[in-house]
Amino acid sequence: MVASTPRAGAQYPRSIGEFQSWFSTDADCLDYLEWLRWPDGFVCSGCGHVGGWQLGDGRFECAACGARTSATAGTIFDRTRTPLTVWFTACWLFATQKDGISALSLKRSLEIGSYQTAWAMLHRLRAVLVRPGRERLRGQVEVDETYVGGAELGLRGGRQKGKKVMVAVAVERVDPKGFGRCRMAPISDGSADSLRAFLKDNVEPGATVITDGWQPYRAATRELYVHQRHAGASGPEALRLLPGVHKVSSLAKRWLLGTHQGSVDDAHLPSYLNEFVFRFNRRRSRSRGLVFYRVLELAADHDPVRYRDLIINPQPDPHPRRPPASRGRPASIERPPANRPWRRAELPNSA
Ligand SMILES: [Zn+2]
Questions:
Q1: Can you tell me the mean pLDDT for 195-218?
Q2: How many whole angstroms separate alpha carbon 166 and alpha carbon 188?
C-alpha cells in the first residue's frame, strides 16, 4: 500500500482532464496498478520475496522462485477481458459521481456490450469497499432499525417482518451538532441477538448507544456499551430524539430509488448498503479524484471476485434486446472468446 496521504495531481488525477491524459491506454492503467500494488517494488505473492524483473509481456518474474505474475493477478481485475481503460473509466464514474452510477447508465456511457458485464463490474467495485478490520463507530452512536425495499418511501411500520428487509442503522453524533460516519446492514429480525451482532460488528465497545424504547436493546447493549434509551419515543418525537438514523435511512432509501430505481434485490442489498455507507462517509471529501484513488487502491489489494459469487440472484436485463434463449451463458458474457472483437468504449484520447 502507498502512503496514506497521496498527492493530488501527482498520485491521483484532480480532474477528468487529468484522468483522461493519464489513462489513455491499458499500459498506462497497468503501470498505475503496479505502482499501487507494489509501491516499493515487486513483491512475489507466491514466496514473499522482494525483487524480480519485468518480462517482455509486462509480467513480473520473481528473482527467488521464478513465479510469473502481473499486477492484475489476484485482484478484482484478474483475468478480466474488459480493457483496463474501461475498468478505470467505470471506476472514475463510480467514484466521482456524487450518487454513483447504475449498471444501465454504465452500460450506456461506456458502450459496454451487455448489461450483465456492466452490472458485474459495479458489483466487483462494491465488493472492495469494505476493508476487513475497518474502524468501528465511536462516541455517541444512534442506532435504530428500518425497512428497505418495496415501493414506499420512508415507511416504518412496526417491527413485524413483511416484504421489506429489516436493516439496522448506526450513525455517529458529532458535537455540537451534525453527524459523523454511519453503518447499515440487513438483520434477520429485531431480536437482542441480531442487534447485538450488528453492534459488535459496527460500534466500538464503550461507545454510548442511543436508541428508542425497543426492549431488546437492553440485552443487546449489556456490558459492552453505555445505553441511552428513549422509552416510548415514536413518530415526530423519535425523529427529534434520533435525527441521525432517520436522516441516514431516508437518504439511503432515496438513493436506492433514485440511482438504482429501486431495482435492488434482497441478495445484493448488503453490497448496495455498503456502497451507500462508503459514499455517505466520504460526503465531505473535497476531492473526488481521491475517492477514485481509494477505490482503485482497495481494488488492487482485493482478492478476485468470481462471477458465480455475484450471481446468487442475477438481475435481469431491464432492457433485453434479444429473447433470453439466444443469450449466452453467464460465463461467456463475462469471458468472451479472445478473438471476439471487444466493443471498446469511446474514450477520449484512446487510440
Ligand atoms: Zn517468488
A1: 96
A2: 7
Model pLDDT for residues 108-126, shown as the tens digit of each residue: 998 888 899 999 999 999 9
Q: How far is the CA of 74 from the centre of ligand 1 (A)?
A: 14
Owner of C-alpha cell 458485464: 117
Distance 60 CA to ligand 1 centre (A): 10
Mean pLDDT of the chain: 81
Q: What's the 49 CA to ligand 1 centre distance in angstroms?
A: 5
- 53: helix, coil or strand? strand
CA 241 and chain centroid, separation? 30
Task: Determine the Cα–Cα distance for residues 153 and 155; give it in Å rounded to an integer.
Answer: 6
What's the CA gap between 12 and 22, in Å, rounded? 9
Q: Over the stretch 14-27, which tens digit does the pLDDT of each residue have?
A: 999 999 999 999 99
Amino acid 163: pLDDT: 65
pLDDT in tens, 234-256: 667 777 889 999 999 999 999 99
210: Cβ contacts below 8 Å, ≥ 6 apart: 140, 141, 142, 143, 173, 228, 229, 230, 241, 242
CA 293 – ligand 1 centroid, Å:
28
What cell numbers appear for 254 in the block? 432515496
* Å from CA of 38 to ligand 1 middle: 14
pLDDT digit string, tens, across residues 25-81: 999 999 999 999 988 889 998 899 999 998 888 889 999 999 999 889 888 888 888
Q: Which of 13, 93, 36 is nearest to 287 (CA)?
A: 13
For residue 168, which of 150, 135, 192 has the smallest C-alpha distance?
A: 192
CA–centroid distance, residue 308 to ligand 1 (Å): 30
Instruction: Determine the Cα–Cα distance for residues 320 and 339; give it in Å rounded to an integer.
Output: 25
Q: How far away, in angstroms, is 302 Cα from ligand 1 center?
A: 20
Cα–Cα distance for residue pair 237/287, rounded to 1 Å: 37
Statement: residue 344 has pLDDT above 50: no
Alpha-carbon span 183 to 207, nearest angstrom: 14
